């Protein structure tokens, strides 16, 4: 594990394979970099695969006075780490949800650094929809954060409960999700580090996702972009992915008919085949 320190934050990353090309995987809200175990193994033939933290997501560390995260700070922290990982070479960014937002924004801001992007169910603008959108609205009400904290603590303490919650509130087909061995394995591997995450730090990112907006940056993207989105996404409506495809010149959109916010788990074979064909 390697790390970088910037503006009071420590972000960590892990290298999973070696090669001439560098692919950096960035997870979404409340996840951690261990969640990419299957994907980094699958993509190892493309080169050096690296998984990178989001701020405040274990094992990343925050300053003692951490109370707020702006879009500018999020992007600056990720950019600092990516520059260190890249070591002067162009990279491919593969991001899910918030990680997809980061990948797209940095592609616009740093065209000499980012050579292509795979954005899976990316957040383009806030607020979120579904249960996460409800949390965002409730956070400002009396007792709202307490409700949020108790529920997230329950997901940290109970693996069956978090499996049920992800299937119910993130997937496009909860019944099919519960039978999905790919999703089961990913959550079981990710949950150990998730138990050590600070719920307060997760809430800080969730508040940012209520007001984030990368639309002003998107039309500056010039590198190849592949967008993967589930038509039944209850967190980031499919309209955001369609808007992206219309505004990023030459981008490709894969809509997964029965999937929700986790198309790379819910339709693994279809999504992996499409990404491989696109990357060549």
Detailed description of the structure:
By secondary structure, the chain is of the alpha/beta class. Helices cover 46% and strands 16% of the residues. The protein has 13 helices and 8 strands. It has an 8-stranded mixed sheet with strand order 1-2-4-3-5-6-7-8, sandwiched between helices. A hairpin with a 2-residue loop joins β1 and β2. The protein is globular, with a radius of gyration of 17 Å.
Tell me the Rg in angstroms.
Answer: 17 Å
CATH architecture: 3-Layer(aba) Sandwich
Taken in chain order, the helices and strands follow as EEEHEHEHEHHHHHHHEHEHH
Number of helices: 13
The N- and C-terminal alpha carbons lie at a distance of 30 Å
- Highest CATH level, the class: Alpha Beta
**Strand order across the largest sheet:** 1-2-4-3-5-6-7-8
Sheet-strand content, in percent, reads 15-25%
Q: Mind sketching the topology for me?
A:
Blueprint: E1 2-6, E2 9-15, E3 22-26, H1 37-42, E4 48-52, H2 71-86, E5 91-96, H3 98-109, E6 114-120, H4 130-138, H5 144-157, H6 159-169, H7 174-178, H8 181-194, H9 199-211, H10 215-218, E7 225-230, H11 238-247, E8 252-256, H12 263-266, H13 268-279
Parallel strand pairs: 3-4, 3-5, 5-6, 6-7, 7-8
Antiparallel strand pairs: 1-2, 2-4
Helix pairs in contact: 4-9, 5-6
């Amino acid at each position: 594990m390697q790390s970088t320190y910037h503006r009071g934050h420590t972000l960590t990353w892990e290298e999973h394979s070696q090669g001439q090309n560098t692919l950096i995987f960035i997870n979404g809200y409340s996840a951690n970099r261990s969640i990419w175990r299957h994907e980094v193994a699958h993509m190892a033939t493309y080169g050096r695969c690296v998984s990178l933290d989001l701020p405040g997501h274990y094992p990343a560390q925050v300053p003692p006075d951490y109370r707020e995260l702006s879009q500018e700070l999020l992007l600056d922290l990720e950019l600092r780490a990516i520059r260190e990982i890249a070591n002067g070479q162009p990279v491919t960014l593969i991001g899910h949800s918030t990680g997809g937002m980061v990948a797209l924004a940095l592609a616009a801001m740093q065209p000499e650094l980012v050579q292509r992007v795979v954005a899976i169910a990316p957040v383009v603008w806030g607020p979120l929809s579904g249960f996460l959108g409800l949390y965002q609205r409730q956070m400002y009400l009396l007792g709202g954060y307490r409700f949020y904290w108790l529920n997230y603590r329950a997901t940290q303490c109970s693996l069956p409960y978090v499996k049920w919650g992800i299937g119910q509130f993130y997937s496009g087909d909860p019944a099919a999700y519960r039978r999905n061995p790919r999703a089961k394995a990913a959550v079981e591997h990710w949950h150990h580090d998730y138990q050590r995450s600070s719920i307060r730090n997760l809430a800080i990112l969730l508040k940012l996702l209520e007001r984030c907006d990368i639309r002003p940056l998107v039309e500056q993207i010039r590198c190849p972009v592949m967008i993967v989105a589930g038509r039944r996404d209850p967190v980031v409506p499919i309209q955001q992915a369609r808007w992206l495809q219309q505004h990023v010149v030459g981008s490709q959109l894969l809509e997964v008919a029965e999937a929700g916010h986790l198309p790379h788990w819910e339709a693994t074979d279809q999504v992996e085949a499409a990404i491989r064909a696109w990357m060549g």
